[in-house]
Design goal:
The protein is an alpha+beta fold and 321 residues long. It has three domains: 63 residues, no CATH class; 105 residues, Immunoglobulin-like; 93 residues, Cupredoxins -  blue copper proteins (Immunoglobulin-like, Sandwich), CATH 2.60.40. It is 35% helix and 19% strand. The chain contains six helices and twelve strands. Helix 1 packs antiparallel against helix 2. The longest helix has 36 residues.
């Protein structure tokens, strides 16, 4: 999560700008402190006319109050503008296509969408972003409720996500790796617990990861009761790819108030980083989610017996590509 450990072109450029700003700030501070200490030195005061005093004042006002800020701002723009431009979704030389990933901010979780085409369905997951390494990726950013901010510190600068608008930021990972990401704009009580795990992989591995998720997961036997309970209690807000219509209440469409759960068994965490994904974690989350992440939009399940919640959790853990 440190900007001082860059792992992409945009992050490296910001790293250089940060060190340049720090160096200039330290130099200016040293000069100002030196002048401040110099004023305490006892020395004979020269006799000056009012015109001479006014000229000295004008030099300080124009030099320190006008010239220094103008030079500093222009220098910062010259140094920083190319850094910002490198994160714009501009056409690549040769007209190469850039991978597009949609990221939707919710209170307080991340929806990640990989758009398909006429022959392929969209791939939808949550709180886990997989991207190809060694090539630029455009992230289309959307907010479903309040202002959020998408920020992967080791890959580049943050971008606000404003309701009703979308923006795009281009980032790249130099090599495969796992990076932390965080909502960087206060968005409510659980803002701190709105984490996103970003995994950069080789292109072949990325294509295989997508292909696996474009195929509906096979439904494991012996979980019919859990699927029925899911359809009764959960399907109005959550979606599972390939779930038969009879398990959804009235066969209605999913409203997607909550995360898509089609591949939840393969995700590294639950609740946007609150719990590690391990055996029994989903059932524990279903029973205690308002304690683990107070204020989240999933209602308490006090009306559902523990055995049913455990059955639902056990079934959801089997949902892997």
């Amino acid at each position: 999560m440190s900007i001082l450990d860059p792992s992409g072109p945009a992050a490296h450029a910001q790293f250089r700008v940060w060190w340049a700003m720090l160096a200039v700030s330290v130099a200016v501070s040293l000069v100002l402190f030196s002048l401040w200490l110099y004023t305490f030195r006892r020395r004979p005061q020269p006799r000056r006319t009012a015109w001479q005093e006014q000229r000295i004042m004008l030099r300080w006002v124009l030099g320190g109050g006008v010239l220094l800020p103008v030079v500093s701002i222009v220098a910062l723009l010259l140094l920083g503008a190319p850094t910002g431009r490198g994160m714009l979704p501009l056409p690549l030389p040769g007209g190469e296509e850039v991978e597009l990933i949609e990221v939707v901010g919710h209170q307080w979780w991340w929806e990640v969408r990989y758009p398909g085409d006429e022959d392929q369905n969209d791939v939808v997951t949550a709180n886990h972003l997989v991207m190809p390494a060694g090539e630029p990726v455009d992230f289309r950013l959307i907010s479903a409720d309040v202002i959020h901010a998408f920020w992967i510190p080791r890959l580049g600068g943050k971008r606000d996500m404003v309701p009703g608008r979308h923006s795009t930021i281009r980032l790249e990972a130099d090599a495969p790796g796992v990076f932390g990401a965080q909502c960087a704009e206060f968005c409510g009580a659980q803002h701190t617990n709105m984490l996103l795990q970003v995994e950069a992989v080789e292109r072949d591995e990325f294509d295989a990861w997508l292909a696996e998720r474009r195929t509906p997961p096979e439904q494991v036997e012996d979980h019919d009761q859990a699927r029925e309970a899911f359809g009764e209690h959960c399907a109005s807000c959550h979606r599972v790819e390939g779930l038969p219509d009879e398990f959804a209440v009235g066969g209605r469409e999913y409203d997607m108030e909550g995360p898509d759960l089609s591949d939840i068994g393969s995700r590294p965490t639950l609740g946007a980083g609150v719990l590690p994904m391990e055996e029994g974690a989903i059932a524990y989350w279903l029973q205690h989610h308002q304690t683990l992440k107070p204020g989240n939009r999933m209602p308490p399940h006090d009306h559902i017996d523990i055995e049913t919640l455990e059955n639902i959790g056990a079934w959801l853990e089997t949902l892997e590509p």
